[in-house]
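TA notes, week 10

Several of you asked for a full example with nothing omitted. So below is the full record: C-alpha cells for the whole chain, then the designed sequence directly under it. When grading your own attempts, check the secondary structure regions first.
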C-alpha cells in the first residue's frame, strides 16, 4: 500500500490523506510494490555487460570506419 508523505516546516515527515494518483509530495511504497516494479525491469549483470559492450563496439566500429574513409579521401586527393 502506497502512502503519500510530505515534509513540514520543521523538516519532519508526515503522511497525508491524498491518494497515490493525487499525491503532490513523496510517495512511499512498500517492499512488495518495490520488488514488483524492480522485477519488471529484469536487469542483471549480464545484460549490463552486453549493453556496455555493444555500445563500446559500435563507437569503435564507426571510429575505425571514419578513419578508413579519411585515409581513402586523402589518397584520392593525392592522385
Amino acid at each position: 500500500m502506497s502512502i503519500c508523505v510530505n515534509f513540514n516546516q520543521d523538516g519532519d515527515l508526515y503522511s497525508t490523506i491524498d491518494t497515490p494518483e493525487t499525491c503532490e509530495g513523496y510517495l512511499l511504497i512498500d517492499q512488495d510494490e518495490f520488488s514488483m516494479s524492480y522485477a519488471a525491469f529484469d536487469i542483471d549483470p549480464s545484460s549490463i555487460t552486453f549493453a556496455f559492450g555493444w555500445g563500446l563496439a559500435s563507437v569503435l566500429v564507426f571510429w575505425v570506419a571514419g578513419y578508413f574513409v579519411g585515409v581513402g579521401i586523402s589518397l584520392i586527393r593525392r592522385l
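The beta strands are 3-7, 13-15, 26-28. Use that as a sanity check on your answer.
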